[in-house]
Amino acid sequence: MSGVIFSSSLILPQLYSTSRRIVKMSVTETRNPGMSFESMVIKPPSHPTYDLKGVIKLALAEDSGDRGDVTCLATIPIDMEVEAHFLAKEDGIVAGISLAEMIFHEVDPSLKVEWSRKDGDYVQKGLQFGKVSGRAHNIVVAERVVLNFMQRMSGIATLAKTMADAAHPACILETRKTAPGLRLVDKWAILIGGGRNHRMGLFDMVMIKDNHISIAGGITDAIKSVDQYLEGQNLQMEVEVETRTLEEVDEVLRYTSQTKSSLTRIMLDNMVIPLSNGDVDVSMLKDAVEMINGRFETEASGNVTLDTVHKIGQTGVTYISSGALTHSVKALDISLKIDTELALQVGRRTKRA
């Protein structure tokens, strides 16, 4: 069961239309778009304190401020109903569909949302892959927040899918280099794209990095300290140590061969060497993997790009981690249009649909 929190104590002003007079009848009964994790195709990762509903409320509040959508209030009759369609403006993996339903439900539980694609599906430029119908004012209020999440998540998922396919048989991981406040959302997009999640934060895995090693007085002392801490606290969790040289790898292997240790994974950092011709030399990485010889999981980090990830994946490493999956993501272009014919006409003119 996911540890993500849905309840929120955040108090916001009433920013959405609530009075209702039906002006267009639907032949289909409106279903409640509120979702449980069990109904999601790909569930978000677990986090003990993350308030997903609170994040949604904050996103809506920063957009609507203390007055709400003044343009909608000025131009859209309060009781008008419309149907708006999601339109892909470029090829990619769609992500954020489940989150979009949660946002629409937060704005107006009576909105009806339907999809022809699900999270993780491929969409082509020009494809209409979903629609939302109901009160026009509330659809437009939710529009930008929904698209901001979907475009970012779809961009992450698209890159994750491409890199995961290229990295095989190694597994692709993201890092903690996520947008502040969007840790769970970014990591959810990685899962939707076919990647795997690294640690969620500072609390769920011990990761001994270069600064810890320097402060502790060396790599062996750092691992010893972790072993003693976990034993003293009666904690069991994964432990990873960063190594930067083959000498450090050898030191880790010697220590763990002589002493019972909680270590589970060795990071091989910057052992992929860029060459002047644009290629990379992975011989050092291969040597490290051969030294470890399956005693621990291995993780390659540094100089990981779309051009290098396949070669890195052939070295025998268990995982390949890339911060670029989330810190340098290009959003996938998606729009929500009421007049889809005009939107497609403009899209063709601008080469975007």
UniProtKB/TrEMBL annotation:
GO molecular function, one term: nicotinate-nucleotide diphosphorylase (carboxylating) activity
Cellular component GO terms held in the UniProt record: cytoplasm
EC numbers for this chain: 2.4.2.19
Keyword set, alphabetical order: Glycosyltransferase, Pyridine nucleotide biosynthesis, Transferase
Highest taxon of source: Eukaryota
Pathway annotation from the record: Cofactor biosynthesis; NAD(+) biosynthesis; nicotinate D-ribonucleotide from quinolinate: step 1/1
Domain Quinolinate phosphoribosyl transferase N-terminal: 69-154
Quinolinate phosphoribosyl transferase C-terminal domain: residues covered: 156-337
PANTHER family: NICOTINATE-NUCLEOTIDE PYROPHOSPHORYLASE [CARBOXYLATING] (PTHR32179:SF3)
Protein name (database record): nicotinate-nucleotide diphosphorylase (carboxylating)
The organism of origin for this protein: Dovyalis caffra
